[in-house]
Structure formats: structure tokens, C-alpha cells
Design goal:
The complex is a heterodimer.
Chain A: H1 22-31, H2 38-54, H3 61-72, H4 79-85, H5 91-98
Chain B: E1 5-9, H1 18-31, E2 36-40, H2 62-71, E3 77-80, H3 81-87, E4 97-100, H4 103-108, E5 112-115
Parallel strand pairs in B: 1-2, 1-5, 2-3, 3-4
The chains are: A mainly alpha, B alpha/beta.
């Protein structure tokens, strides 16, 4: 599929979150060798809804886990599950980047 | 004694970064499972207002960020009772706000009080 990749910062986050589209998500995910499945999309969509409501991404790893737990329960709201879906130094950073959110401001 | 943190925001939102930095500190403490509350005094009570529209100055809406802070374990959002009575209906209905008669007495209930 052909599309224009929006501008990104030095950590790969979109400069303008409003330019996010699903193909953009797939491209960013592919850079981390992640092929997006329904399991990824439900987390991505939850993060995007969270951002639309609160104007911030969950600002720390444990808050990401907490938000997922509130939506989907213990089975998915745990750090092992989320790190398996979004491997890297920080699952919330990887997931936020794919979801087109700004870098979590306070990412502990 | 268990440490309990109270962060006080006493300046209007968007005028400077002090409130935003205070909120970041409060969230950081909450991320380490510390008991944390926020208090709003003086012009700081406007953080809690509904219908803030800071998009034009590329800022995040204070009250919406505070709703997230509550989800993440900030235990209470305190305002002086006088401000609560005056502004009550203007506050964001999505926030659970606790009026207090005396900010001084409130501060005495915490081991650590932070005001930038």
C-alpha cells in the first residue's frame, strides 16, 4: 500500500498525532519486527481512546498496565502479556509510538 | 511514619509550567506506589474547571489530565470549601473533588507537602 509517512521525531514518534492511520501503525510496528494482530489492535485502539479522553498517554509503564487492566482485566492487564505484544525497552513507549501518540511525557 | 505526599497547585493553568511540573511530580510519586493527593488553592482551582480550551496555545486540558491522574492512583483532589461553593458547578463533572475547610489543617495530615 502506498502512503506518505508523516514526520517523526528522533525517537520515532509522530510529530503530529492527527496524521496517524492504521497503515502508519503497521509501518512503525514493522520497524520493531512486530506484525500487528487483533491482540495488538485492541491495545492500540484502547490507547487511542485513552488519549482522546485524557489528552495524555499513560505516563509510566505501570499506568499502562493499569489502564489495560481496567479495560480488559487481569489476563491482559499484566506486564508480561504487554511486553510480549510490544517487545522493547518499554512496552508503553513501543505501543504509544505505534498508536501515534506523543512520547509519554514522564516515561519511568 | 509512612510518607504521604500532598502536592499543591496555587497558580492558574497555562500561565507558567509550575502546575504541569507539579502534576508530573505527583504522577511520578504515584508510579512508585506512594500515597499522593493534590490540592488546588488560589488561582490553581481553575485547573478543575470544565470547558477549558487550551488547544489554541497547544496545551493539554488540565481537567482531563487530572481525570487520568485519578485513574492512576492520585487519592484526592482537594479545594478550599469557599472556592468549592463559589465554582462548584463550573468544575469538570468528571472529577471527584473534595472540599476542605482549612488548607493548613489538610497539610498537617501529610508527611511531605510540595509547593513549587
Amino acid at each position: 500500500m502506498s502512503f506518505v509517512m508523516p514526520a517523526r521525531n528522533n525517537e520515532g514518534f509522530l510529530e503530529d498525532p492527527s496524521l496517524w492511520t492504521p497503515p502508519v501503525a503497521e509501518r512503525i510496528a514493522a520497524e520493531s519486527d512486530i506484525a500487528l494482530t487483533d491482540s495488538h489492535w485492541e491495545i492500540i485502539n484502547m490507547l487511542r481512546d485513552f488519549y482522546a479522553e485524557h489528552e495524555m498517554a499513560p505516563p509510566a509503564a505501570r499506568f499502562f498496565v493499569k489502564a489495560v487492566k481496567q479495560h480488559f482485566g487481569e489476563e491482559k492487564g499484566n506486564s508480561i502479556y504487554l511486553m510480549q505484544l510490544f517487545p522493547g525497552t518499554s512496552a508503553v513507549k513501543v505501543a504509544s509510538r505505534i498508536a501515534g501518540l506523543p512520547r509519554p511525557t514522564n516515561c519511568l | 511514619m509512612e510518607r504521604r505526599y500532598l502536592f499543591i497547585i496555587d497558580r492558574a493553568p497555562y500561565g507558567d509550567w509550575s502546575g504541569r511540573e507539579t502534576l508530573d511530580m505527583a504522577l511520578s510519586a504515584a508510579a512508585f506506589d506512594q500515597p499522593v493527593s493534590l490540592a488546588f488553592s488560589g488561582q490553581g482551582v481553575h485547573w478543575l474547571r470544565a470547558e477549558q480550551a487550551p488547544q489554541g496555545i497547544e496545551q493539554k486540558t488540565g481537567s482531563r489530565n487530572l481525570a487520568a491522574a485519578s485513574l492512576f492512583g492520585i487519592e484526592a483532589l482537594y479545594v478550599p470549601k469557599a472556592a468549592f461553593d463559589r465554582l462548584g458547578t463550573a468544575f469538570d463533572s468528571g472529577l471527584e473533588i473534595t472540599p476542605v475547610a482549612s488548607m493548613t489543617e489538610l497539610a498537617h495530615q501529610f508527611s511531605d507537602v510540595v509547593r513549587l
